[in-house]
Amino acid sequence: MIESSAIETMETRQKALSVNLDNRRYGTFAEIGAGQEVVRWFFRVGAGAGTIAKSMSAYDMQVSDAIYGRAARYVCRERLQSMLDQEHALNLERLTEARGETSTFFAFADTVAARGYKGNSDCHGWMGIKFQAHPRDEDSQIIIHVKMLDTETALQQEALGIVGVNLIYGAFNFNHEPELLVDSLLDGLSTSRIEIDMIEFSGIAFRRVDNRLMSLKLVELGLSGAAMFAANGTVLQPSEFLYRKPILVERGSFRPVCNVNVDMLRCAHEKFSELPDVKGKEVAQVMEITMRNLKAQGEIDRRDFLARADVMAACGMNVLISDYFEYFRLGAYLSQCTKEKIALTMGAASLKELFNEKYYTELPGGILESFGRLFKNDLKIFCYPYLDPQTGELATCDNLELKPELQPLYSYLLGRGGINNLDNYDENCLGIFSREVLRKIGDCDPSWEQMVPAPVAQVIKDRKFFDYQCIEPESCTLPSK
Question: Taxonomically, which superkingdom (predicted)?
Answer without folding.
Answer: Bacteria
